[in-house]
Design a protein that fits this description.
The protein is mainly beta and 68 residues long. It is 7% helix and 46% strand.
């Protein structure tokens, strides 16, 4: 799902968020940065990243990647 599609809803996807579930995604298009526990993770096509429960994460403003 594209971040811009998520941002069309009421929630602010660029604010730091703490999940209560595991999230594993693979970047299928684009290039970006993502913050997980205040550390920058470089995202590029083919990168798989894991966000564990209670980790804090946020998207970079104007994110342009798509992930599954």
């Amino acid at each position: 799902m594209c971040v811009s599609a998520l941002n069309a809803g009421e929630s602010d996807v660029y604010s730091s968020t703490r999940l209560d579930f595991n999230l594993i995604q693979e970047v299928i298009e684009g290039k970006d940065n993502h913050w997980i526990d205040f550390e920058t993770v470089s995202l590029d096509r083919g990168v798989v990243f894991h966000i564990k429960p209670d980790q804090i994460h946020s998207f970079e403003p104007r994110s342009r990647h798509e992930a599954l």
